[in-house]
Amino acid sequence: MVRTVxxxxxxxxxxxxxxVKCYRSDAWLGEGYYFWYYLDDANHWGITSKTxxxxxxxxxxxxxxxxxxxxxxxxxxxxxxxxxIETAIAYHVKxxxxxxxxxxxxxxxxxxxxxxxxxKGVMFQDISNNPxxxxxxxxxxRKRIQIAVYDEQIIANFVxxxxxxx
Amino acid sequence: MIDLQKxxxxxxxxxxxxxxxxxxxxxxxxxxxxxxRHLLKFFNRGGYFTPYSGVEGKKLxxxxxxxxxxxxxxxxxxxxEVFHNAA
Lengths: 166, 87
What we know:
The structure holds 2 protein chains of 2 kinds. By secondary structure, chain A is of the alpha+beta class. Helices cover 24% and strands 31% of the residues of chain A. Chain A is built from 3 helices and 8 strands; from the N terminus they run βββαββααβββ. In chain A, the strands form 2 sheets. In chain A, strands 2-3-7-6-5 form a 5-stranded mixed beta sheet. In chain A, strands 1-4-8 form a 3-stranded antiparallel beta sheet, with helices on one face. The termini of chain A are far apart. Chain B has one domain. Helices cover 56% and strands 5% of the residues of chain B. Chain B is built from 3 helices and 2 strands, in the order ααββα. Chain B has a two-stranded antiparallel sheet with strand order 1-2. Chain B is elongated. The relative contact order of chain B is 0.10. Chains A and B meet through helix 2 and helix 3 of A and helix 1 and helix 2 of B.
């Protein structure tokens, strides 16, 4: 299955011809190419987090999700993933009081240990603070979904969509 | 198509032999590389850092990695000039 998803970056001197790999310490699915499922969330991310140059850009790409761990729509994948994260929490996170172990650390560790061989990306949902997801009072009716891609071979048709002021 | 059973088996095997030491060593190495990358990025932007961390009583190298590069650890080239002139 191919999904069209969205990538947000600060506006720079040149348009991108490929997404930028994320190394941020709070990149919670580990180092990879990050995409939003909804253009609206890509837009919100630009306004709130890509503010360095005053403008942000959004790009679209097609991701071949055949080998992406789909923890959002596939229950089996979701339960498997949660089990691994919770095992890691029990083994390593709770005992380290000197250094906070992040979700990114855990995901990077899985990749470093080659446990995710064959998995070319992970799709996950978190809680959005995007006001447009809260039309019904504070109830968030819509998932905020991200895909972290570890293998750039599954990224195709990367194109500029639009730019906007933060 | 992802072969979930195969990946699950791999994880099972991994957790059965996993040790605290293995994770701690990996994390320490990762933190060192991350600090190095952060410093290189800083120097490439023309910055300098003081021998002091900005955190009272701590040298830069005594800080936990997460704090290296946080506000107060580094000074700008302009501040550096003042720092060297004063020294």
